[in-house]
Queue: 2 jobs
Job 1
Amino acid sequence: MASKQPENSLLGPEADSQRTLYPYVTGTSVVALKYKDGILMAADMGGSYGSTLRYKSVERMKPIGKHSLLGASGEISDFQEILHYLDELILYDNMWDDGNSLGPKEVHNYLTRVMYNRRNKFNPLWNSLVLGGVKNGQKYLGTVSMIGVNFEDNHVATGFGNHLARPILRQEWHENLSFEDGVRLLEKCMRVLLYRDRSAINKLQIAKITEEGMTISQPYSLKTYWEFSAFANPAQGAVGSW
Amino acid sequence: MDLNMDLNAPHSMGTTIIGVTYNGGVVLGADSRTSTGMYVANRASDKITQLTDNVYVCRSGSAADSQLVSDYVRYFLHQHTIQLGQPATVKVAANLIRLLSYSNKNMLETGLIVGGWDKYEGGKIYGIPLGGTLIEQPFAIGGSGSSYLYGFFDQAWKEGMTKDEAEQLVVKAVSLAIARDGASGGVVRTVVINSEGVTRNFYPGDKLQLWHEELEPQNSLLDILNSPSPEPMNI
């Protein structure tokens, strides 16, 4: 039971070498923005298995070292492996015992190299990553995709978030957002994703990272609005319409 | 029978497997059907396999893959126990399973549920689906039969059940899955693991509760025909 390809595949035998994989347990969008004191990041706690919303308590954001926060969408097992690589990276960094510690820019660069190199070997880590942090007063927010595309910006998102959340952020983000405004803006994005992304679930966490450190909220759910009269009576105009 | 499956859809796997924590340990459950295509190769298989004295694993998917992964992990855990000088923890067992599942994800097709009891964390259940994700859960379901149980567990699961409540829940769930999943069948086996030890239980198919559209089994039609006539209608 090694090969799972269709008859017309050009991929060749998969059993002998590691080649392109397919994701099994996946996380959906991550959305993040820079605000006055640092970075705010939001992700729901869902792990989908194809179209089944199988796992509903998956933490898709984790602290990295003292200064960074990593959020991931895509294959959860590959995210767990990335966390293991980063564990080692931070460990070796600490072992220098020189008072210096890896900041978000360095961690982002490391991740970019890992993702791009795996892509070149046709064995990608099937994730889109968001890396945010603050070091020495400098805020940093970047993203890396499974093919190694990487950039930094004032607000980033993965997956559906790119299509649904970024336009909202382009309109409403501004420099020096307060914590409350930042949270409300993220929640606005997450609510739209909840309405329109089939793999989103209504259980999310918001993480904050500042010079002082990282906190991640308890899991919570958002209220949703369904009371439009057109929703109650969609067929009013024409019977059979949707 | 269509053997070409859409690459992007997860594979459905023959079997129903369940692992549930309760206030003192865990209960593992499984059906007993092993199929090759449409034929039932073994109608009384044991899918709950021992890894150590205190840790067991429920196997689903490819029989060969799940057996080999269990065998390797049992071997590693045995050595680990000797080196450690005390029983291995459930977490270590689960991580070893994950290591093999993840590094061989291209070749393996097996979903596993690791359950056991150790003195540090008590009863724990870890799910390791296709791909090698490791996820600790208060209860886990797996295999093709599990599709029919998501709604059931959403409604029936409660935190802090007793041992008997947990076992009855598992037996009921496997039995419901068997009723609807062609790839699951046979008997229900359970394994209860707690501080006192391990207990294996066996629930034969004909002793399980009947569900919708299922009839009481008879020896023969002749018994029905020869039985005393049914009561007249009351108008």
Note: The mean pLDDT of chain A is 92.
Job 2
Amino acid sequence: MEGGFGSDFGGSGSGKLDPGLIMEQVKVQIAVANAQELLQRMTDKCFRKCIGKPGGSLDNSEQKCIAMCMDRYMDAWNTVSRAYNSRLQRERANL
Amino acid sequence: MDSFSSSSVVGLGAVDPKLQHFIKAETQKQRFQQLVHQMTELCWEKCMDKPGPKLDSRAEACFVNCVERFIDTSQFILNRLEQTQKSKPVFSESLSD
């Protein structure tokens, strides 16, 4: 994640830091980082699945494949997220 | 990727308990997210052939199993390492088993 925190910590020059604002900004930055990570991995996987020998442009079948792949990757991500969450809850219940 | 590091706000957390709690919660959430990213990537390789119009039930079941087995593997490794640690410490030549 590049850049890390923005330079404005909700202080706006008054010298006092507003924790609420900081938390909101941090949450946004985290969400952005997660989206970037997702996109990076999705791009990698879908490139591998859909592009054979790279041609002069993306043809129609490649584009269709990429579109489907994106949706399937999201499905997979959600399935994994749910399964992991269930497992964690099960583990916690067994403690 | 350098996942969100809490070290830059830890100074603030030291004075404000609300921030401290926030950092703990977000760190935990991030750890979860990172694992989901990692497992999705790994399980995609194992469970996905050609991307179709939807995720069929076989592939879905594979993903679920994959997650469970990944966690099992992680726990197995920790447990066995703990056991072998008792007889022989980690940083010895005999680690390669």
Note: Chain A has one domain: 14-93.
